[in-house]
Protein 1
Amino acid sequence: MKKFNKVMSVVMASAMTAALFAGCGNADAGTQTADSAPAAEEAASETGGDTAAAGAFKIGGIGPTTGSAAVYGLAVQNAAQLAVDEINAAGGINGVPIEFKFEDDECDAEKSVNAYNTLKDWGMQMLMGTVTSGCSIAVAENTAEDNMFQLTPSGSAVDCVKYDNAFRVCFSDPNQGAASALYIGENAIASKVAVIYDSSDIYSSGIYEKFTSEAANQPFEIVSAEAFTADNKTDFSVQLQKAKDAGAELVFLPIYYTEASLILSQASTMGYSPIFFGCDGLDGILNVENFDTSLAEGVMLLTPFAADAEDELTQNFVTTYKEKFGDTPNQFAADAYDAIYAIKAAGEKAGITPDMDMNAICEAMKGAMTEITLDGLTGVGMTWDASGEPDKAPKAVQIKDGVYTAM
Amino acid sequence: MKKMKIAKTTKNNLITYLIVLFAYLAVQVLLATGNISSLMKGLLVPLCIYVMLAISLNLTVGILGELSLGHAGFMCVGAFSGAFFSKCMDGAMPDGLRFFAALLIGAAVAGIFGILIGIPVLRLKGDYLAIVTLAFGEIIKNLVNVLYIGKDKNGFHFSMKDSISLHLDPEGQVIINGAQGITGTPHDASFTIGIILIFISLLIILNLINSRDGRAIMSIRDNRIAAESIGINITKYKLMAFSISASIAGVAGVLYAHNLSTLTALPKNFGYNMSIMILVFVVLGGIGNIRGSIISAVILTLLPELLRGLSDYRMLIYAIVLIAMMLLNWSPKAIEWKEGLKRYSKKEKGVK
Amino acid sequence: MSFISYLINGISLGSVYAIIALGYTMVYGIAKMLNFAHGDVIMVGGFAVFTIVSTLGLPPVLGILAAVVICTALGMLIERVAYKPLRNASSPLAVLITAIGVSYLLQNVALLIFGANTKSFTSVVTISPLKLADGQLIISGETIVTIITGIVIMVCLTLFVHKSKAGQAMLAVSEDKGAAQLMGINVNGTIALTFAIGSALAAVAGVLLCSAYPSLTPYTGAMPGIKAFVAAVFGGIGSIPGAMIGGILLGIIEILGKAYISSQMADAIVFAVLIVVLLVKPTGILGKNIQEKV
């Protein structure tokens, strides 16, 4: 009897799996643009030399769309789709439309590699991803092996662009840490500084380390440096109390806005009001649904993107994004939007065609990336060098009356 | 009578080995003919890892009869010790030998942790034991996240605060960088190695189950007091099962570390979520049924990947499938119904 | 002075854990199952209040009432569909895994409905913070309300369990299901009632958790759920005052550990203390010592 159950369960499970597998072949879930020819369904051959369906570039994206980091992945997915749609409406790259497909990695390096392989099976020719640093490092290993062109919108850890096929749109972590220390020092904003960072996050601890080492050369002193972890990020009373006791005039927050919004509200409850200073991760704090923006009054941040910027490009992007997806884009969205346009610019420079295989595209794109200049949402006149790092200037902004004002 | 029984278990075990062998050969044929997608190719090593984790946890849960929610902790220990060794020795010894040594080190360190944790934990019972194993798993993950080890010409430097306090020489190298973990572990894992390790794990576990020691362990599970009364050393056998289970998980961890170039201890991969995930494999495959664990580990690892086409709905469907499968497999009513169906199916009658 | 301030913050955090742990412990005591989905019911409660108060603009009282009703219904539904069929399964692990499935399900449904973006929760507490010692010590309104609510709930539950007929039935079912049934107690009804109460408590906990720490995502409930589970075990699972004490102690240890040992290792410290307590007293602080019968 027991055996029957076992057999039954296996049969059941495999039947479900099989049914679902069969079902997913034609359920490519709205991420694709309208492609005229049916996509080639055959599996990718080992050399990666397969070509895409006639007349379309296949660009893949990877990021977390479920799990606790889903907010970043979804922003990238939406904004990239927006850029792809715009480009296609305007005639595509070299007159060829783009097909875009985005895969979930749940912010797990292992799942990210799975997502990459799924996209390869689909026939991806260029990768716009991954969203998070840890996953980006893992996937970079595979793209380097396959010689696939990779442009990460927001993978900021140093190792993300270790190989010559990988580029990024955002700043690297050390770059932001140093820039923040330099800014605070040069403008003499404070003499006693406290840091609250997420020690379990690569982005946050990367910035913190560089900030601390750069601070040694600056005329301010770090009086308290307290960490929190991904499992313990609701109560910040201790970290704030320590900063307060140490007499810090400025609290540096190299973290994401989700936690920062909690820190701001807890600081206000305990009657502590230093200057809060953050990096690009803090962008988005004003758009947290239902957030009392008066709490963020006076917060300073170095960010390449501000959703409230007056320029036409940003305004158009923000309006369209809001219309389509119902919320205000954050810096991740902006990075992704720029990433797609950078691919377009480099693709046009290199004169790539959809019948080239991914190696040929990668070789052509590698060179072209260093030659383009892009005026995007996250910077005007962005250029890249062969190391994969972008060259752009961070903007320092301060929140006044609930909006960003340039400083 | 006795002979018959032994023959039956041997036959049963043989089937398990053959399934693994057959799966290996089938994949090799597919690889050789190029009929396998990149996704499947990328999944081969993770599948081996999860199979090893599932069968090793089954030793604790099914054979020893104790609920452990900290299995991922042992995997974490194995992964970090193995990767640490590989990073230190990279280039200093031949790759094959180094990886082999890393596997041994991972197994040994995880086994030692198994004993260290097992001594206090195994004194507790039932849900209390479960929560303490969960606690240990979380402690391991948390400590690994604040561990900084660097190397320069003066030797190793160690810190629990941040990498700056390591005070390395300019040319020194940070090997374990706290939350950023270990990056650049050599990519040594392959499907063949994974299958060999599964075979070794199976050999160890299946032989243990059918040995004198294994029967002693199962007698503790079935009736601790009776086992004690006939002179079985409870602590020894409990620790034996627990530490073997831990070392196999450690080996799986080493494989994990050498499959990805980045190793970080996140809630996702080494937290209680992963421990629970492995427990799901075990329970769904049948508690104490090693072959069932293998099959369910494979199916449940593939399921979310195969559901990718459903994008936003895939984790939702995964959850529903999980609940449905549990209800169908374990609910007394469903079992009764299935048995009834089987009994009456010949008469072609729908029977409640 | 900072020590007292840490202590107050610890009690504040602990009282939230305590209310969640009360729900955990009730369900465990009667159904003998670890309800991993409890934390996610809290999240549902939070979203219910958020939708009604912030999105629809209705008064908070209505929001809390609705949250309680929704969570109670949800808890009973989960019990009926997912847990009850497995009550007599051959292994207690079956229902544990199903609970995990329910937890994933609730998280992903919330993700699809509300999206992954963090929502900022408007506190339902309007009491202004208490300032002591020239503003050196500040006790927030949320803390005061949480502690009072916790104590009131604890007292009510204790009275209910020991004085009312339904409560006595619960005790009987938790002691021996078979015997209770023989005595004419409706076992299914009693277990359903327990889940209803546990889920109603989860709704209240959700409101208080989100008021004290005003951020809401589909994953908000997961970690507090685990911590509260630890708190319940800490105090002796199945014991109502134990859950309260366990929760508050856990909060204090967490905050003091963060303050005086390492802010990165707060969880490791909490779990280490739990292990030590369980090794000294294997059934928790107020847990009953059950003698094993041959």
Protein 2
Amino acid sequence: MPRAVAVRRVRSRLTPWLFLSPWIIGFLAFTAIPAVLAVGMSFTNWNLRFDPQFVGLDNYAEMLTDDYRFWSSLRITGIYLALSVPIYMALGLAAALLLNQKVWGIRLFRTILFLPSVLSGVAVAVLWLLLLNGDAGAVNSFLRSLGIEHPPQWFDDPNWAVPALVITGLWTVLGNGAIIYLAGLQNISPTLYEAAAIDGAGAWTRFRSVTIPLLTPTLFFMLLTTIIAGFQVFDTAFTIGTGRGSGDSLRFYLIYLWEAAFRDGRLGYASALSIVLFVIGTGLVLLLLRTQGRWVHYEDGN
Amino acid sequence: MTDVDVTGLDGPRAFTPVRRRTGIGWGREALRVVLVYLGLMALSALVLLPLGWMLTVALKPDDVSVFTTPPEWFPTTFFDWDNFARALTDPARPFALYLFNTVWIEVFVVLGSVVSCALVAYPLARMDFRGRNVVFTIIVLSMLIPWQGLMVPQFLVFFELGWYGTYLPLIVPSFFGTAFFIFLIRQYMMSIPKELDEAARLDGAGPFRIFWSIILPLSKPALAVCAVFTFLATWNDLLGPVIYLNRNDQFTAAVGLAGFVSRQNQDFNLLMAANIVTIIPVMVLYFVAQKYLIGGIASVGLKG
């Protein structure tokens, strides 16, 4: 084989890897190495002041037996998930069904409804902090006008802080979810509805027997992302602050992780918290993926 | 090719009302339309009224209470546009500077993200080589990793590099590709006819030339989705800047706004003015690039 051909062949073998190299370097530097580092650090008392020492499983033991903030942050995240997942999924679908109707001006309504989904968690939190003001906020003055004399104090009441955050999140999530549901709805072949209608199926039967089964991939995706988002609540809760009248009631898991690492400087302990987050998150995703065969209906060829 | 409907929301299959052939008549149809409009208007009110209230508060003078019963949803009495200037130039919280900082970061992040994602997506979409499927699978799986779980060790890496207190930890990672956008752009590049590469190769063009002159221009819609979402994510990011920035004059708009709240101050009119100021660029982007935004979100659900 002539030398020039050999050189060219080697070069053409290398070409794709040259294009891939940014991702490979980035994956190693920002994902793979930090992941290994996180596991290692979680067995140390790493902080930025002293030389780290190996402490074995102490961090994990402390978390499980001697850290009420760990448990309370898990509980808060759990309550948030229990409230947000059904509410966000159901209302998102309802909004999408509405936006899927053929009426004049529907594009304008879509534009309006999707708007909050681009706003930042901080901006939305700032706005809703005032709208949900206990004394004179718009929401409570509306509730009082309905005859509710003592509406909730929302962010100033530990028991109502998490529901208040669910409402805050709903405002942005609704549009986002509606877009995804809408795309799913419009992917359903109209011939199926026509066939169902010819068979005499009413609106409700069509919804139950055509829309819902064919929308299960989208529903599954939304379930997955809503749950993951629940574990990643940070911006809104951070902005509204853990030090308000709501006390510690908004210390979500990620907030606590941030506090442990960057306020208390306990990087080793925070790494252990990260590992637990990772295990819980990955476990939930795997669990959901396993149930998917039972209820998620994929059309042939997808 | 450049004006492909990436939203998919108004394709031929959109708007497919199912008219019942049993013919109950237009009375039911009229009722449906009325109910739909009522629902749509209620939803729109839920979105627009808070925004209008925010503007009302932002335009109030300092000595007027922001709370009224009933709430004022639209500015009618007070129009202190000066509040915006005050929010932008307040020496303690200079939002003009925060906005400038954020834009500065955006320039690098958006550029880096688009270029690197396109580079990585190209061989995955249009070259045959051993190991391609392995790399692609790893990229897809890495989307499931919650990166927040890595914020502590990543912090340590950047801290040891001496990058704490600079914009580098916020900018540099974007130059190495983001799994989700690599995936999105790759899917799009797959749909470009292979004959174009073949013809260019016969004309003597190398792989980089084909990438630059043929594939990249044809991938514009996907690149736009990547750019728009990267811009939004960066603009709205709080966690990253909160971890890595430690000086007031470095802050991004999101950090400045979050700090504004936690000081327990009562300057709600200025707070709302600042909030509006940080929201405006995002809203402008929303109206300009709506097609890509909605298309991007929609494709997430369909392809994810």
